[in-house]
Amino acid sequence: MKTVLVTGASGYIGSVLVPKLLKKGYKVKAVDRYFFGNRLEENENLKIIKEDSRRLKEETFADVDFVIDLVAISNDPSGEKFSEITYQINHISRVRTANIAKKMGVKRYILPSSCSIYGFQDKKVNEMAKTNPLTVYAKANERAEQGVLPLADDNFVVTVIRQSTVFGYSPRMRFDLAINGMTYGAWKTKKLPLMRDGKQYRPMVHVEDTTDVMCLLLEADKEKINGEIFNVGGEELNYQIGPLGEIVANTVGEYLGEKIEIEWYGDPDHRSYQVDFSKIKNVLNWEPKWDAKKGVLQIVEKLQNGELDKTIDTITLNWYEELIKWHRIIKEIEKYGGILEI
Questions:
Q1: d(CA 64, CA 66)
Q2: CA–CA gap between residue 132 and residue 314 (Å, rounded)
Q3: N- to C-terminal Cα separation, the chain
Q4: For residue 38, with 0-12 CB atoms within 10 Å meaning exposed, 13-18 middle and 19 or more buried, which class applies?
Q5: 326 burial class (0-12, 13-18, 19+ CB within 10 angstroms)?
Q6: How do residues 212-271 score in pLDDT, each as one tens digit?
Q7: CA–CA separation, 133 vs 162, rounded Å?
Q8: Distance (Å, rounded) from C-alpha 151 to C-alpha 71?
Q9: Contact, 137 vs 75, CB < 8 A?
Q10: Which pairing describes strands 27-32 and 3-7: parallel, antiparallel, or unpaired?
Q11: Are 104 and 152 contacting, i.e. CB atoms less than 8 angstroms apart?
Q12: If we measure between CA atoms, which residue out of 134, 143, 48, 60 comes closest to residue 94?
């Protein structure tokens, strides 16, 4: 059995990826701080490693065949709030992990990056386009790419995937992602606020699809993927915000049997970018299986049956701030290693 080390293993993407890897017959070393809890079910081939990616030791990589380096401060608001930490984790720690992996004989390293590094563009962009990162999150991803790609050689396969904005249900659910948040709002309030004028484009990809790509890269011909960058998504998933809002409103409305009103606000948002996904289709013969309607329906069904709800830990920045608040409170009142019990 091959062993995959996954950082950020219990996060939004990791908690979908790890069960998929186990089902495919891999052993998994699941590295995470577990800030959002352990969302991974026990399995004889799963080893839980509670550690910070900035402190990983060489022995953690013993007998590891592949690394999927998901760890990240994972959105723009959190990146701006914790900018220095974002560079430490999203950039420096991932380059460090890649170097240790290579030193320890790991065969493949996959860096999940983001299409956000393209910034906003006037034309459809492919993997050769000039990047234009506008946020700390995007800039840190770009630096990580620049740090890991030169490590590729005949014995160490390095692949970067630039993911579109991810959506869909995960055991570690996030409602601070565009489609997920829109779906919750439409379900909860029967209204859907959209920024004018709805013509701006954004690329999307379902969490099941992007994790399928990660699994595919573990098995793909290394000559096709070594040192390469792949945009992950699909042509039909380059959504204009207006039509996307209509898909969300109509899907939720049809499920509930109610009318969901779209409410426009603000000045027209001229920031827009479309991504070319022909490379992954042509080189790896891969196309997404999920679209927005299917993903929205998946989420609203779980909301409606009570399996899912919006809680403070489904908004990444809010949960980090809550943890920091309680860490401060506990430190102030703790004595002799406890509070009431000492």
A1: 6
A2: 29
A3: 46
A4: middle
A5: exposed
A6: 999 999 999 999 999 999 999 999 999 999 999 999 999 999 999 999 999 998 887 777
A7: 13
A8: 19
A9: yes
A10: parallel
A11: no
A12: 143
Residue 130 gets which letter from DSSP? P
CA distance 251 to 236: 17
Q: Compute how many other C-beta atoms are within 10 angstroms of the C-beta atom of residue 73.
A: 24
pTM: 0.95
The C-alpha atoms of residue 26 and residue 35 are separated, in whole angstroms, by 25
Q: Which pair of structure tokens corresponds to residue 84?
A: 């220095």
| Structural element, H or E, at residue 100 | helix 94-103
User: Listing from the earlier edge strand, what are the strands of the sheet with 165-167?
Assistant: 165-167, 201-206, 238-240
Indicate whether 132 pLDDT > 80: yes
| CA-based R_g, the chain, Å | 20
At 107, the amino acid letter reads: K
Report yes or no: 82 and 131 within 8 Å, Cβ to Cβ. Answer: no
Q: Strands 201-206, 238-240: parallel, antiparallel or unpaired by DSSP?
A: antiparallel
Q: Which residue carries 């509930």 as its tokens? A: 256
- Residues shown for the chain: 342
Report the distance separating Cα 83 and Cα 78, nearest Å.
8
SS (HEC) of 281-296:
HHHHCCCCCCCHHHHH
Amino acid 206 reads H
In sequence order, what DSSP letters do the residues of 14-30 get, joined into one string?
HHHHHHHHHHTT-EEEE
